[in-house]
Each structure stands twice: as structure tokens, then as C-alpha cells.
Amino acid sequence: RGGLAALVVAIVAVAFAAAPAAADPIVLRFSHVVAPDTPKGKGAEKFKELAEAATGGRVRIEIHPNSELYKDKEELEALQLGAVEMLAPSLAKFAPLGLPEFEIFDLPFAFPSPKALDRVTEGPIGRTLLARLKDRGIVGLAFWDNGFKLMSADRPLRRPEDFRGLRMRIQASRVLEAQMRALGAVPQAIDFADARRALETGLVDGTENTPSNMATQKMDEVQRYATLSDHGYLGYAVIVNQKVWEALPADLRAALERAMREATVYADGIARAENEAALAAMIAAGHTTFLRLTPEERAAWVAALEPVRAEMASRLGPALIAELRRAAA
Ligand code: LMR
What we know:
single chain, 6-stranded mixed sheet, TRAP_DctP, globular, transport
């Protein structure tokens, strides 16, 4: 009799272990490539906090920063395969999904102000771009800001001629490639996870990024000069696997949408100050000399980069470029 009781206990135990307990949360893995202490990293943390509170703990957001799971090239595949549920890749990195039009955000000097940028991401262009993700099994939840980029190298970059022959690390975007070529540099697309090392070992001479990315990767320790050119924008689309998203109970999805709206306000709200603080910290550290362009120097950069728009028209679509020009004006 004792043996039978033990067997019953064992069977019941196995049954309970196999069936997920009702209280088991749904886990959404959110993978990204930058440090936690960046606008995107902090935006992800804020989303986690808001999402878990709004769902009463029924959803758990598991953040994997610093490419600890996947690098740039792999993370989009991982999302589509269901190996992670959420990402926030830079808008420069959507071409592998067959969506090169996201690269309009890489066009040099395309956004005269942060307001112009908001008009684009929050207007019809932004909505249309996010809607196109649907065919790829992806839902676009929001755009998040990082900010405007500087150019760094081991030599001062004041005029377009200063770029001649420099190997410059870029994100894998054809528009950024064209931008570097227009300046006479040699672009090299390298995953973000490997960018710092590429600068340190001399595989490349320079790069472009926002101050927050430069500082958190300690790129200032391996770049002697940086020009505060604000020549281009770096921002993100927060995306989620469509099957997973649509399988969520409607009340949870609504709560997560609310959390994402609030996290977006937060992320966009801190981005500028984060970048200013990162720049101040790098200036104080004194490894890199930061240069500002005179109006004449800036005009020379604008003139050198003007042809990129026409060159990229067939890739991005002339109608979209014209729409961008109107929306950002
Ligand atoms: C880069 O590769 O430089 C950026 O896209 C990294 C990031 O996610 O901000």
C-alpha cells in the first residue's frame, strides 16, 4: 500500500511539474546591442518596469543587452525564428528584411531639427514604414530616438578632404556607405559588437556614432579627434515577433501597448540629455579632442554630401525622398 501511495504521489508530482502553473509569466526576451547605460538601454529597462507593472507580473520582460545573445546580423533572424521576441535595431539595419527604405533616416543633413524628425517618425512616413514590417512577420511598436552623430578618427576632420582614404566603420546601410564614399572615405560595415575592437586594432581609422554609444563603448580611448557635426541621425524601431504578439491575450497586449507608449515618451525624453552627459564625460576624460565646424566648414560638408540623396533615389524611392523633404522641411 505504501508503494502505491508513493506511486500516486510521484505521478501527481510529475503532472504538476509538466503542466505550467497558472502563475507562470509569459516571457518576452528583448535583445539589443548597446550598453544598458544608453538611451536605448534605459528605454528597454523602463519598458520592462512599466510592462511588468501594467500586466501585474503576468508578462516578464527579459532584457539581453550588449549583443550578449545576438549581434546585428543575427538578431533580426533570431526575431523571425522566434529565438527572441523583441528588438530595437537602428533604422540603418532593416535592409536585410527587404526594407531598404528605412535607410531614409541615414540621409545626411536630412533633419534640420529634432522636431522635423518627430514629424517624420510620428507622421505618415513613420506609420507606413512600421506597417511594412507586417509582411515580414514583425510588428513595429514604436520609434525611439538616440540622437545625432559625430565623426571620429585619429586625425581632425574639419573639411571633406580630411576624410580622404580613411577607413570608416559604418552600420550596414547603403546610404551610410554612399555618405562615406561621398566624403572620399572607405566605408567598412562592422557589427556594433566589434566596432570598438576594430578601432583599437586599426582595422578601421574612424567611425560615426552618437556620443552615448561612443562613450559607453569607450571609443574615445581609441579616437584622438571627433567632430560634432550632427550630420546624421541614429534612431530605432522597437519591433516584436508578430505571432507571439498576436497570440497574447487582448488585455495583456493592450497593457503592453500602453507601457510601450509611456516607455517611448521616457526614452525620447532622456536621449538628448544622455548624449550631452556622455559628451561632457568624454570631454572631461580628455582622450579625444572635440571639434566644432565653422559655418563655412559645415557648408562644405553639406555640399559634399548633397549628391547622396540623388544617388540613393532608386534604392529609397524618389517619392519617399520627396515626401521626406516636405515632412522634414
Ligand atoms: C551602431 O551599430 O553603431 C548602432 O546601431 C548601435 C545602436 O544600436 O545604437
